[in-house]
Design brief:
This protein is mainly alpha-helical and 166 residues long. The protein has a single domain, classed as dinb family like domain (Four Helix Bundle (Hemerythrin (Met), subunit A), Up-down Bundle). It is built from seven helices and two strands. It has a two-stranded antiparallel sheet. A hairpin with a 2-residue loop joins strand 1 and strand 2. Helix 1 runs parallel beside helix 6. The chain is globular, with a radius of gyration of 16 Å.
Length: 166
């Protein structure tokens, strides 16, 4: 059984995808300042997950290198951003599956020193970061005139309910 924080991250990723479902390539590169584009947001979340779970967690440096060129106020094509995000998720998931209660208290080594936050806190940071951008993207989509947006927080009680004892 996967750790509950891994389960919550996966639920949050699914909510991120659900919140952005149906965004066109054209709308994905629109920038309503001071916000960044939706394409940027997808790439931004991929960059964080890549750092946490792929580069720092596994020492892999060759996953989704295009993310390195999408720093700052850029508007990467939405389809390309999603492809990079999916590559990062695919590279992350086997690592995430192996994490335990004990793992969550450990600190990854980054640049030769223990990272300032435990792995468990990094999970919380990633999850909350996604939720911030889900809300931001929902507001952005409203400004673009999108209708019939998905309701806030999907089927949590079935897909990722609270589990005691982990």
């Amino acid at each position: 059984m996967v750790h509950p924080l891994v389960e919550q991250l996966r639920f949050t990723r699914a909510e991120f995808q659900r919140a952005l479902a149906g965004v066109s390539e054209e709308d994905g590169v629109v920038r309503l300042e001071p916000s960044n584009s939706i394409g940027w947001t997808v790439a931004h979340m991929a960059t964080q997950e890549r750092a946490f779970w792929v580069t720092w967690g596994q020492g892999l440096t060759d996953v989704a290198p295009e993310l390195d060129g999408w720093q700052g106020a850029v508007t990467p094509p939405l389809g390309e951003a999603w492809a990079a995000w999916q590559a990062v998720v695919a590279a992350s998931d086997p690592y995430l599956d192996g994490l335990t209660v004990e793992s969550m208290g450990q600190h990854l080594v980054v640049n030769g020193a223990p990272y300032r936050e435990s792995l468990g806190t990094m999970f919380l940071r990633a999850i909350y970061h996604y939720w911030y951008h889900i809300g931001e993207a929902s507001a952005f989509r409203q400004q673009l005139g999108h209708v019939d947006l998905p309701p806030f927080v999907g089927n949590l009680g079935v897909e990722a309910p609270y589990r005691a004892g982990a």
